[in-house]
Description:
The complex is a heterodimer. Chain A is mostly helical. Chain A has 10 helices and 7 strands. In chain A, helix 2 (48-59) runs antiparallel to helix 4, helix 2 packs parallel to helix 7 (199-228) and helix 3 packs antiparallel against helix 6. Chain B is of the alpha/beta class. A 3-stranded parallel sheet of chain B has the order 4-1-5, with helices on both faces. Chain B has a two-stranded antiparallel ribbon with strand order 2-3. The relative contact order of chain B is 0.17. Classes of the chains: A mainly alpha, B alpha/beta. Chain A: This is Cation diffusion facilitator family transporter.
Amino acid sequence: MSEPTFGSTKLPAEQQEALRKAKRLAWISIAYVISAVVAVLLVMGSSQAMRAAWLEDMLSLLPPLAFLIAARLIRRGPDAEHPYAWHRSIGIAHLSASLALLGMGVFVVGDSAMTLLSAEHPTIGTMNLFGHTFWQGWLMIVVLAYTGIPNIFIGRAKLRLAETLHDRVLHADGEMNKDDWATASGAMIGVIGLGLGFWWADSVIAIAIGASVIRDGIRNVRTAVAGLMDTRARTTDGKHIHPLVHEVNRSLRELTWVRDAGSRVRDLGHVFHVEAFVVPDGPIGIDQISAARDRLAALDWKIDDVSIVPVAELPEGLDAEVAHPR
Amino acid sequence: MRLFALLCLLLSLVLAACGTIPSDPKDTLDNVRSRGELVVGVSPTPPWTTAEGPDRVGGTEVELIRGFAERLGVRPRWVVGGEQSLVAELEDGALDVAIGGFTKDSPWAALAGATRPYATAPDKKGREQEHIMLVPMGENAFLSELERYLDEQTGKTTR
């Protein structure tokens, strides 16, 4: 096998390892979710909360699939038709997955609200397994535990790898998995409530699950759109400005021939594309520009595609605080 | 958040110990016992159900329900009617159970609560049909009691 790359960017050993693990985890995740989906389908009966949890499980197939597809596509290097290579496929995968999430959340809330309003009492009787007759709700609870608990660990592992790979899809996926126990235990409460004769408990919980899916969806659509809009590069969780943004400027300003420097760093998915503007102190040559380029590329594996633009004055729109710290 | 999960677990254990799960939102099972009477809707569909008058009913399902009433220690009261009126009466709470050769795939099964299929038999066209009985929607304790009884009668339960 050829050495794994993101476009033309070669991956350091740590990232290669993380990518390998992330792919394996995505496959494990898919296999596990399919088994959970089948198990829930067999026992869900007419519980609205179970149905909501089931739909959420089905949907949680999308992010790992999107990740696997995107991980294949972004390996391709740039060509005349795709001068920025295929990095954006990860952003597109992220946006599609989050829109599906949002849509499904709206559906679950609407559907459960209708059930609640029509005051339809969920009918859940018994099951017969191996010659024993017992209330189906008990089996539902066991299955819900199976769909909820392993996800906590899968989710955590994904979050760690997402950090190393700077991968938003993996991050979103991990967050969803990690929060899945809330869905599962919510649905359990719904089933128990239903068993106690509170027929509405089930629908109410389903609405709450739907609402949390909507919240996830909105959060993810927001980060995905922000990525595609070329906002400032941020950390994987989207909470902070990525430290490399500052480092690029600092590193350029340390050069003796540079009077001022500012840059636009855009997050292409895994790797950054850097357009750096430098105001030289006097006349400069190609050597200085190439040296500056190499200097930036050496900062981090994510920085590979760098343009250095010598200018008389810094263009507008670069972060003032970042561009003029002195 | 962890605490929340733990509390849920604890709550479910406590509730499980109470033995009140499942229960009926409209207390059908309790009402049948206190009334001493099981109100049964019968739509004549031989060989499952036959009716020559309100008290002259027969058929395999009638016999099954007779046994169920006996097990609950109550008398059956038979209400003969068409399928549509029986389903409406189930919804109103006027009936406790409705029989009449209902199958799992019949449209009525979606409008009321249905038991698990307790028997399969070919219909007139030779297709295998799964037979069910209808109960009020969401009366899960009553439904479970009936299903338990049917399992015993059809030998699905090891005793």
